[in-house]
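Figure 2 data, in text form.
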Amino acid sequence: MKIYKRCSLLLYGVLIIISAVGCGYRAGTEGSTNPYAAVTSMEGTPVVDYTVPQMSANILVDLRGYSAVGRKKAAVKGSGLPEDFQIIDVETGETLYQGTISGMSYDENLGLYLGDVDFSDFTREGSYYLKCDIIGQSYRFEIRQQHYPELFMENYTLLMSECEAGTLPVADALYLLAAFEWYGSVFPDENGDQEPDVLAAMRNWVTHKEASGVEDEETALYAAFLAKFSYNYQGYDRQYATDCLKRASTVFGQVQTTVNGDADIFWALTELYRATGLWTYSNQIVNYKSLFEDNRDYLDESGYLCGSMTYMVTRQTVDVEMCGDFMEQLLARAEDISTHCDNMIDPVTARNNDSAELLKYAMEVSCANFVMNIYQYTNILEEFLHYLMGENLESVSFYEQSEGRSEYLLLLAQLASNVPDSTQE
């Protein structure tokens, strides 16, 4: 009873002090750990200094899904792991498949157990998620028979809309044209006029560019595009193709950059030489030989990579030694990427700079695969895409971002061309 009276007196004293200083009283904040210390009135909204911890899935999947036939894997992580996993149908909640987690290990740096799940033999189309005891469930994903052809058409449609509007950047137009040149069978001809829709759209794109002009830094690439377009369009309208080639030569003459040392100019030279066979372009290409000998990393630049591809496939007379060097370097790069890809794109412990770097590496493998058609390289391209589309530590689909659409198109066209009857639903 005495304790109760003492507390009542103490509370009464506090109320008297508060009434004396008024509601505007400011509590001292120096050294205070109270997040509400700076509140000036009961009506104000308190400022709470609290950061919501970042959450990430413990089952890492390709957010865009998988092809029904082929590799279907995911990574799991956690402070503890169960033995099994299940595939759950999104619509019904029914468990349709159960498998065993394999390759379990413990990563001391992360303080996590890691493992893999493989459901490659599950081929039923639909929308699903993976579920494991202890660690939860994955984000949803789809399994489709025509997964890569459909992804290709999705990307193709976006690039085509920009092409028809005349807003497609020159570099993207070149990649789009390169994808058509290499994998034309996956490009549609919806009106059935025997002229691929992409070439008709590019003809309109050229009209836009001629009217609006090209930025100075795009001049060499624009010359490369016109020469490549001329080469691919001559079977549909030879006169227009010839006009484009003449225009390419004129545009290239406007380039004010030193020839030895510019990748875009080298790409333009190779396209012009393939389309014309003129020795003046050939001699300028060979002038790069010493540059390449002193710089074994020249394929890092897309202009040199794509230009060397054009030079290797041309029917014109070429410097055999130079072509051999291109082939040797390309395959060496692809093998190096193949050897280190597990470290670069491991879903949990990946070591890479960014998605742009990974796209560059994937493009090098894609070029090597076009030349050699190696099954191993096709698998590596799939692994790169799975990582970029969500099978990574943050479960982020870099594919959804606007950057790199044209580079993705080249990879998707290659994968779609390997799908049986990929142009038919």
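Caption note: The first helix runs from residue 2 to 21.
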